[in-house]
Specification:
There is one protein chain. The chain is α/β, with parallel strands linked by helices and about 100 residues long. It has a single domain, classed as 3-Layer(aba) Sandwich (Rossmann fold), CATH 3.40.50.1110. About 40% of the residues lie in helices and about 10% in strands. It has a three-stranded parallel beta sheet, with helices on one face. Helix 3 links the parallel strand 2 and strand 3. The chain is elongated and about 40 Å long. The C terminus is likely disordered.
């Protein structure tokens, strides 16, 4: 985080991966993510923060540390936090199918 502060970037792009949510509750994820967003804003008030939603996993063909249900809950929290604080969110919906599962093969 210190490097981001020292560089004083115009924009920061933030994307969370499944390792960040594998073993925590939705409430804990929201708490940690909100803390991260607030820290970025506090340390870099003039930096535009652009947030991506989490991408789905192929939990049909592969064993993963979390499933798409968890990812969808986290994406909802990410969206609500971005709306609450006025951050830009880019939703990568091309990767999502109707059942929110990555296509196998």
């Amino acid at each position: 985080m210190e490097q981001v502060k020292l560089l004083e970037p115009r924009k920061v792009y933030l994307m969370t991966g499944i390792d960040d949510v594998a073993n925590i509750s939705s409430d804990e994820f929201k708490k940690q993510y909100e803390s991260l967003l607030m820290l970025l804003r506090e340390q870099n008030p003039s930096t535009e923060l652009i947030v991506f939603n989490m991408l789905p996993v192929n939990d049909v063909d592969y064993t993963t540390s979390c499933n798409n249900e968890q990812i969808m809950r986290c994406n909802k929290e990410i969206f609500l936090l971005c709306v609450k604080y006025g951050f830009v969110i880019l939703i990568c919906s091309l990767f999502m199918s109707e059942v929110a599962s990555c296509p196998g093969r």
